[in-house]
């Protein structure tokens, strides 16, 4: 009886703690949402208040009128195309590193080199990336924001770990039946890694959608700006347009929230599948 009561108390305490932490994380977003409907005179009024006293949607109208959906289109192209290329490359690399680990002796060493690359801060590579983008003639092009970051060690690791949990005999049987390596990958291995594919798709889309540094370096024309760069443009030499920043920020996070809510049940499964060792 005492053990049962103790477990209930622990469960209640952990639930309360979890709700408290969740509240601390969600509260800034709630404040952001309500503040986006406040007139500029209320944003810094003292004392601060959560709910707007005179709600107004003028900031949203202004942001949309400034061509916000053009920035949405650019960000969608960057996120969708970049994610598709990332998933394909990661799946192929993960397949090769897992399936050929016993056939080719240095495969594990190649994977170790990939992992060592994660120790290098991304900021160190920005100058090299900008130089390559410029030499390829991709400056001020959305492709200059896509191609330098289509490979991700995280994605390769997830696919490799998942494929290592699949018996090698499955691929060997397909070879005996005359299947090519590409057909084995496309028809057998890729469908078996659907949970990893969905998880990596969500993460990659979020990374590309929220990318700031590379688009800031590569894009110069306003018509090519992504959402994050467009939000930064509301900070000018004459002041900061806080109302537009708040409204644009809310509009920029809505797609991510919707995607996460719809596909959240796949994230845990994909991460669990990628953590299985062969």
From TrEMBL:
Residue span(s) of domain ABC transmembrane type-1: 72-263
Transmembrane segments: 12-34, 76-98, 110-132, 138-159, 188-207, 242-263
Predominant location: membrane
Family matches, as InterPro entries: MetI-like (IPR000515), MetI-like_sf (IPR035906)
Membrane topology per record: Multi-pass membrane protein
An example Gene Ontology biological process: transmembrane transport
Subcellular location: Cell membrane
GO cellular component labels: plasma membrane
One Pfam short name: BPD_transp_1
Keywords: Cell membrane, Membrane, Transmembrane, Transmembrane helix, Transport
Stored PANTHER family: ABC TRANSPORTER PERMEASE PROTEIN MG189-RELATED, ABC TRANSPORTER PERMEASE PROTEIN MG189-RELATED-RELATED
Family: Belongs to the binding-protein-dependent transport system permease family.
UniProt name for this protein: ABC transmembrane type-1 domain-containing protein
Organism: [Clostridium] clostridioforme CAG:132
């Amino acid at each position: 009886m005492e053990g049962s009561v103790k477990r209930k108390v622990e469960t209640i305490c952990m639930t309360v703690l979890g709700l408290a932490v969740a509240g601390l994380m969600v509260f800034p977003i709630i404040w952001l949402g309500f503040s986006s409907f406040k007139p500029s005179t209320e944003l810094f009024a003292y004392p601060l208040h959560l709910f707007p006293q005179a709600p107004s949607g003028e900031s949203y109208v202004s942001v949309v009128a400034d061509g916000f959906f053009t920035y949405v289109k650019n960000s969608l192209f960057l996120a969708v195309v970049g994610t598709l290329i990332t998933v394909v490359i990661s799946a192929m690399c993960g397949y090769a590193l897992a399936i050929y680990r016993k056939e080719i002796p240095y495969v594990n060493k190649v994977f170790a080199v990939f992992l060592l690359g994660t120790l290098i801060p991304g900021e160190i590579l920005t100058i090299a990336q900008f130089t390559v983008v410029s030499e390829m003639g991709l400056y001020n092009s959305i492709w200059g924001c896509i191609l330098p970051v289509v490979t991700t060690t995280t994605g390769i690791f997830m696919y490799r770990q998942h494929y290592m949990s699949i018996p090698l005999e499955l691929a060997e049987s397909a070879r005996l039946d005359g299947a090519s390596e590409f057909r084995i990958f496309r028809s057998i291995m890729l469908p078996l890694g659907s949970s990893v594919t969905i998880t990596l798709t969500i993460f990659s889309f979020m990374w590309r959608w929220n990318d700031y540094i590379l688009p800031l370096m590569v894009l110069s024309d306003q018509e090519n700006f992504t959402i994050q760069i467009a939000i930064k443009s509301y900070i000018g030499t004459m002041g900061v347009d806080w109302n537009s920043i708040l409204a644009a920020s809310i509009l920029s996070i809505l797609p991510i929230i919707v995607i996460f809510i719809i596909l959240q049940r796949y994230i845990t499964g994909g991460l669990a599948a990628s953590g299985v060792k062969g």
